Amino acid sequence: MQTTYFLFVAALALHFIATSSASIIVANNQNNTVDLNALLAFKAAIFDPLRIIPTNWSTSTSVCNWIGITCNARHHRVAAIDLSYMGIAGTIPPQLGNLSFLVGLNVAKNSFHGHLPTELSRLRRLKYIILEGNAFEGELPSWLGALTALRYLSFWDNGFSGSLSGRLSNFTNLETISLGFNFFTGNLSEELSALPKLKLLEIQYNQLAGPLPQALFNLSSLQIVAFTNNSLSGYLPARICDYLPQLQGLYLSWNYFEGEIPSGIGECSGLQNLSLSHQGRSQKFIFGGLKCIKNFFL
Ligand SMILES: *[C@@H]1O[C@H](CO)[C@@H](O)[C@H](O)[C@H]1NC(C)=O
Ligand SMILES: *[C@@H]1O[C@H](CO)[C@@H](O)[C@H](O)[C@H]1NC(C)=O
Ligand SMILES: *[C@@H]1O[C@H](CO)[C@@H](O)[C@H](O)[C@H]1NC(C)=O
Ligand SMILES: *[C@@H]1O[C@H](CO)[C@@H](O)[C@H](O)[C@H]1NC(C)=O
Ligand SMILES: *[C@@H]1O[C@H](CO)[C@@H](O)[C@H](O)[C@H]1NC(C)=O
Ligand SMILES: *[C@@H]1O[C@H](CO)[C@@H](O)[C@H](O)[C@H]1NC(C)=O
Ligand SMILES: *[C@@H]1O[C@H](CO)[C@@H](O)[C@H](O)[C@H]1NC(C)=O
Ligand SMILES: *[C@@H]1O[C@H](CO)[C@@H](O)[C@H](O)[C@H]1NC(C)=O
């Protein structure tokens, strides 16, 4: 599966290289210089013990031929950076904000650290940003809301911290928010809104507190909600499936919820997994109607 995926990506990259290389040779224009300078700044900010990037990212060839770089066929501009699983370390330099055609940034499973530069807010075409499995730190940037094309955001397993209150709103196109295994605090305030396309919301293993906000139950596209191991409290609304008709997985274990398990939860037609175990202050959850649910942990 993984191999097939990588072959597919490699084929895709080769396709782009093949269709773009002819004009790349003559393309000595300003725009490509901007991309080149941005990637040279990135190269200088990367520590690569295997020395793949220092040798491969050579100015004697177009950036579109560099490992991990995909250019778009029409403009020959940098469209995607994929440096995942490369065993590299370093930081994200502000110059990356100059890659105005960038659609995807993936540096998953390396040892990147530091703060995300504000300049990334200029990446108006960015659809996915995957930083999972690194050591980035700082707050969830407020400028993320400026990235109106963003669909997929994964900051999973990093050192991010600070309050999430008011930070999760106005992501018009966002479908996935994955913030698990960080140090986020605060409550999910009512500002958790204007996320009309959100399907997956994962903030497990953080330090969130307070009740689930009413606004959460307005996000009717939600399929998976994972808040395992925080300090959330309060009650689950009785008509949860009316509010979240697409719900497939609800993970709330290791918190401080109380009250009855809403009897209507068994009527959630798509709900496959429900975990409610280990509610710290009380074990007040009472078994409700769970006939349709495949996996549940109380
Ligand atoms: C640079 O990019 C802009 C925006 O896409 C485009 O309008 C312009 O023609 C490009 N310039 C060159 C020299 O390729
Ligand atoms: C860089 O890596 C790409 C992809 O593996 C390869 O096609 C290219 O020849 C390499 N370039 C250099 C200068 O090593
Ligand atoms: C690129 O980004 C840097 C830092 O954000 C900035 O100083 C520079 O003027 C930008 N523009 C170009 C064309 O490199
Ligand atoms: C979200 O958008 C609304 C309406 O455009 C605006 O009033 C509000 O300040 C925005 N919130 C954030 C956090 O950007
Ligand atoms: C959520 O946090 C904010 C800021 O810390 C606070 O003003 C507000 O009262 C909290 N709301 C709830 C419901 O706990
Ligand atoms: C829920 O959505 C409705 C309709 O879009 C809106 O009027 C209401 O204010 C929202 N409620 C919350 C708590 O966000
Ligand atoms: C919950 O997370 C804390 C750190 O945030 C960790 O120490 C604890 O072991 C976790 N609990 C479980 C049950 O995994
Ligand atoms: C439900 O749990 C199973 C087993 O852990 C998992 O494979 C599946 O992806 C989960 N489904 C959802 C919708 O979370």
From TrEMBL:
Keywords: Glycoprotein, Leucine-rich repeat, Membrane, Repeat, Signal, Transmembrane, Transmembrane helix
Organism name: Coffea canephora (Robusta coffee)
PANTHER family xrefs: DNA DAMAGE-REPAIR/TOLERATION PROTEIN DRT100 (PTHR48060), L DOMAIN-LIKE PROTEIN (PTHR48060:SF21)
Any Pfam family matching the protein: LRRNT_2
Name assigned to this protein: Uncharacterized protein
Major localization class: membrane
UniProt GO cellular component terms: membrane
Secretion signal span: 1-22
Family as reported in the entry's similarity comment: Belongs to the RLP family.
Domain Disease resistance R13L4/SHOC-2-like LRR: 81-206
Topology relative to the membrane: Single-pass type I membrane protein
Highest taxon in the source lineage: Eukaryota
UniProt-listed InterPro entries: DNA_repair-toleration, Leu-rich_rpt, LRR_dom_sf, LRR_N_plant-typ, LRR_R13L4/SHOC2-like
UniProt-listed SUPFAM superfamilies: L domain-like (SSF52058)
Domain Leucine-rich repeat-containing N-terminal plant-type: 35-72
Compartment(s) where it occurs, according to its Swiss-Prot or TrEMBL record: Membrane
